[in-house]
Amino acid sequence: MIARPSKRTALIGGGVIAVLVVGTVSVIALSGNDTKKVTAQPSSTPSPSASAKPTPKPTPAKKPAPAPVNPLTGLGKPPAGPVLAVKIDDTENGRPSVGLSQADVVYIEQAEGGLTRLVAVFGTHKPTVEPVRSVRASDAELLSQYGPIHLVASGGGGDSLTTLDHSIVKGIINDRGAAGFGRDNNRPAPYNLTANLAQMAASAKTGPSKNVGFTWSAKYPLLASAKSIGAVNTVVGSTGVSFVWDARLNRYVRTIAGQRVVYSDGNQAATTNVLVQLCAVTTNPNDVDVMGNPSQFTHSIGRGKAVLFRNGKRIVGTWSRPNASSATTFRGPDGKPMLFAPGGAYVVLATNGAPV
Predict the structure, then answer these.
(1) Cα(215)–Cα(252) distance, rounded to whole angstroms?
(2) How far, in Å, CA of 70 to CA of 91, rounded?
(3) Extended beta strands in 111-192, E state
(4) Where do the DSSP E strands lie in 98-247?
(5) I need a labelling partner for 80 at 20 to 30 A (CA). Which of 17, 50, 56, 266 fits?
(6) Is the pTM of this model over 0.85?
(7) Closest CA to 348 of 232, 253, 220, 185
(8) Domains of the chain (ranges plus CATH)?
(9) Closest CA to 341 of 204, 208, 216
(10) Are the beta carbons of 154 and 280 closer than 8 angstroms?
């Protein structure tokens, strides 16, 4: 259907206006001799397509992930080479130790007859080490948290080597003809066995350092309220183990009979952290020395009290480790991870109930 136009007239200002209306398209106005054309204006309301789009919010920049650090010291990048642990003598006959100043972590543990022995862990550096001694059955349990690393030792009695062979820790044993061992003619046997760790590492087929439970931080809020302690004193077996805080060095220095222990390279036996880890210790009747003394088995799986000494302060917490493949968890009195000062650690594996 087509709409027909309509005609209307009106008298305005003495003239006649004829308006032809067709829809609302246009209007022709006549007044005297003037002619005007008025075109209908579009609506002032913008169409939806012309509406302004909201300004998108900028995507926040992602913070870069912190660079990984050496899990055994908290300093520098993680070392790429294999980890080697070495069983080292801890008696007067074996001092001064060689290469021990370059260890990342050093454990002090019971052997037999009330004596102590060391397990030194080398991930960052691979020096020549002396004097190398024999393995104990508990070493496999302690070192399994590091993964399939190598343990360097002179040999082992009783069930110690069998236990090691059944673990993920690989033995580099002098008595089995392994390469890299030598003898220092300036010392008497058995305190003169050396191990060239660089040579041993070159043929080691194991992975790099991994986290075994140490959380490193230069700052520790709990230090503000922690008790200041100038010395660390405890007992492992029947052997006293002591360290003195040296504020100038910002280190704890191991002492024996009041004298500071010095390594063969002239460096003091110093560390940024001393952790006394109280463990269950049982007698191992399957490993007895020539004097009839059974070796002691330190249980590093379980839980117990842990006391951290750093920055001249003492912080009491706990440790726990559910199985051999697990790292050890150290927690402070606030339930949060203990924070170790970067620079490595001495871990003293004392018996439950030992004074600290």
Answers:
(1) 19
(2) 30
(3) 116-122, 128-129, 150-153, 170-173, 181-183
(4) 105-110, 116-122, 128-129, 150-153, 170-173, 181-183, 193-196, 215-216, 227-228, 231-236, 239-246
(5) 266
(6) no
(7) 232
(8) 84-203 (3.50.90.10), 215-351 (3.50.90.10)
(9) 216
(10) no
